[in-house]
Amino acid sequence: MVLADQTGAKVQCSCKRTLIKRVQCNLPLGKWRVIQNMKISGTGGKYKPTKLGYKMNITNDTVFTDSDLTDDSSFLSLASYEEILNGSADTKCLIDIIGQSIDIGEVQIIQVHNEDMKMILFRIRDNSGNALACCLWGRYAEKIEHHLEKHVGEDIVCLIRFAKISEFGIQITNAFDASLLDLNPTMAEALDFKEK
After folding, report:
1. What CATH number did the domain enclosing 116 receive?
2. For residues 116 and 98, what is the distance between their CA atoms, to the nearest angstrom?
3. If we measure between CA atoms, which residue out of 181, 33, 177 comes closest to residue 97?
4. Domain end call among 66, 99, 122
5. Does residue 47 sit within a domain?
6. Among candidate residues 189, 128, 135, the one with its CA nearest the CA of residue 157
7. CA 51: distance to chain centroid?
8. pTM, entire model
9. CA distances from 16 to 40, 82, 194 (A)
10. Edge-to-edge, what's the strand order for the sheet holding 39-41?
11. Tens digit of pLDDT for each residue in 45-77?
């Protein structure tokens, strides 16, 4: 999971398989909760908001209560193409990235662990002309495939939230099912990107 605090600082969070149902019930997507008794790693056990630079683990002792906080912000924090390309971006952290889709390949069906899985390769570029390779799998590839069928020849602005920087070459990919893909988004950051 990726959680955000009231300042927009994000943190990666995980739990054991035996706690997944409890977490799903107590942490619905987009709802604010007060979370107590979590295990924090990477900061000497203290909560220090960073750019996903440490992790929290939900344990049997973790307590969830309602919060009166209301904030509908998406807490978008766009990654720098330059940092990704020069290797200074942390590949252990999930990122948000936006770009114009270019060089979109055909959807391919690849065998992964003896199962057929859809994959699509393409590139995205920022307003300075920097370009990054992207490889999206499964439902993410299907979403692009369906969009291309409906909007033939149109430019696509692609926003990938909680994407992964692949350690095998410089490539952006989805992080299992944790990533969010928005094609031609209408939020302020996307409109600003399109305008430039």
Report:
1. 2.40.50.140
2. 28
3. 181
4. 66
5. yes
6. 189
7. 13
8. 0.80
9. 15, 36, 41
10. 2-4, 10-15, 51-58, 39-41
11. 555 555 555 678 999 999 999 999 888 777 888
